Amino acid sequence: MHDEPTQDYVQHMNVLHGACEVIDVPKLVRECTDPWYNQTLCKVNGSVIRLGVLHGEYHWHKHDDDDEFFFVISGRLEIELEGDETVQLDEQKGYVVPKGMMHRPLAPNKTVVLMVETAAIDPKGSTVPS
Questions:
Q1: Residue 119 above 60 pLDDT?
Q2: 3-state class of 33 per DSSP?
Q3: In the chain, what is the straight-line distance between the N-terminal and C-terminal CA atoms, in Å?
Q4: What is the CATH number of the domain that holds 67?
């Protein structure tokens, strides 16, 4: 269950936009050609807002010190949780994965997600179970 990542993920940690800038999310989604894309859009206080354009499976991982919020704009995101539970998020649904919880996001079709997390978080997390 807690396997190492097998696919390449395109993850841009740079902050794409500053304060007082319009962020064109549909344009970013249209231009995305990667199956698992993560781009930091902006920073808000100590947190960042990230755009995910996802299709496929991520690896099992956890974030020891940080909660992670997912909000589905389009498509469907499934988040497998330790203990054989799966949370299904359809459009306009959100969910917080608490710090320390092993989880694995899956997108059966192209899915667009906004994520809110601390700026210091490593999106790949730790693959070592507690």
A1: yes
A2: coil
A3: 13
A4: 2.60.120.10
